[in-house]
Input
Amino acid sequence: MRKTCFRERVERPHRAQQRCARKAAASVALGFVLAVFLALLGCAGQRAHVAKIPAPPEVVSSEARFRKEYVLVPGDQIEVAVRGVTEASRTLTIRPDGYISLPIAAEVMASGLTPRELGEKLTEVLSARLLKPEVTVIASQIRQPMVYVQGEVAAPAALPFRTAPTAMQAIASAGGFRRTAANRDVAIIRLSEDGYLQAIRVVANVGGQPGPYMALQTALLQPDDIVFVPESGRSQFGRVVDDFLNRPVQGVNALLGTYLNFKLIQIVK
Output
């Protein structure tokens, strides 16, 4: 009897240690499960956060580089400087008929030309009276910055930039979408700082009818931007790239020549 009691007294601490060990192992396992569960929640939260980040707009750039040159119109003020001939150098305002007059030259049509082109024209005209004249033309006071809306809108137009700082405001000022417009495929044509024409597609990241309008309202414009609204039922983004980016002389300069403040000149390498 004493041996049995002694054995129980000896074995009970050992069993207590085993129970403690089992509890510790269970705690470690539970902690590991909780850690994995929290990690999965964290990953899921990260995926949900990333999914909310708007997708970048689709941008296509031209292969060739260009520069913009301002096109003169009636009312613009210009400075004509003829080196060494002060009587032919003066500040002029282009008349309503588009002409300017110089003392030793006939009347010259200035409207529709860039300052560089007008300088070349005046050089040719003055060469009949002067020996190798050097003429420089500077546009000193010009019309305000504009943006342009083309395509499936009620009234394609040139608009003051200050009144149409977003694509949606520009479209609304041009009479809004026609029924044939593809309002989810609007593109903004822009000349980048490094000289490449870009077609920036305004992508709606929100579904439903308000989606395109919300995207266009947040699409900020820059002076001289062209907002192009294509026709629905067919993809015209390829046409935009071809007409406005790859063939801008026939596209931008020709199609929008009556509206534009500028002319695109290709940079020859």
Notes: The CA atoms of residues 33 and 102 lie 90 Å apart. Confidence is low (pLDDT under 50) at residues 1-11, 32-56.
